[in-house]
Amino acid sequence: MTTMINRIIFAAGGTGGHIYPAIAIADELKRLNDKIEIKFIGAKGRIEEKIIPQNGYKLETIEISGFKRSLSIKNFLTAFKIIKALKDSAKILKDFKPELVFGTGGYVSGPVLRSAAKLRIPTVIEEGNLYPGVTVKLISPKADKVIVNFEDTKKFLKRKDNVEVMSYPVRENLKNYGKSESLAFFELDASRKTLLVFGGSQGAQSINNALLKCFKNICSRGIQIIWQTGDNDYENISNAVTGNKNIRVLKYINEIDKAYSAADLVICRSGISTIMELASFGIAAVFVPFPLASENHQQKNAEALVKKNAAEMILDNELDEKLEHSILSLIEDENKLALMKSNIKQFADQKAASKIAAMLIDLVSNSKN
To answer: Which fold has domain 179-345?
Structure first.
């Protein structure tokens, strides 16, 4: 490829699921062209203010928030914010003069990509979830390219000719470690089956509460647990498991790749970043979709994997009834675990970021011709 992208803007924020794929693609573009200028636009006051600078990229923020799903005075305030966000986005774009603007869904992508389209700058939007969010539905008809993670996502989009199915990239800094090394890191026994439980960076109270009721029975079967509780439940759970040598309780797992490498089975939410990381590592999982996720997208994500025998699912309100049985019946069934691990791997593509980067370079090259 002789043509390279020299300046690009990523509109990404709100959740890790929107931020990390953009960083993965940015890293790949930087690897291909070390002189590339990259800027991120995010929402003021959100986690991108921490994550993006930590990964070595410049960030500008705009004030923007999503609409409430009910009649609310906040929606009127949001409408004013959108008008200002469009102006602020246009100013950043005019000053930076990107050759391409890439959005990863989330409401910060809306005003940035809308402004880019008006300025005739090529635009690409990516949707990782099976069911597209409001921003993707609104922006996709006018985008030059729409990248989706699931084939079934196409049926929810009005325009189809600009849609490409490509695997959602995962962050590059996750490494596959040996099982013994990973378990030694958590000071656990390499000969025992290991359950990893987490509910996102803040934890998940419903999962924590359900596991509290059955962890003794699980440990009595020779199973050990790595348990990320989140801040709120940490003290309560630490006290409840005191003296149990088969459990490691952590507020937050910084070395999540070591936890993945140690796990035989994972219990977690079904945000798309988590799903794609598990797919990349090839780990059997029981997904517990977050019931308040917009458009119930986490359940739709989980259902797509269940349909392919790549995972199992328990709804949030079924946890008390089903969690213990689900864990014990799966973690002791080698054949089922092997099948799920093999099937979930089919959702991953280790070269996803490089394939998307190549597509972006082609798009910019064609726009110049």
So the answer is: Rossmann fold (3.40.50)
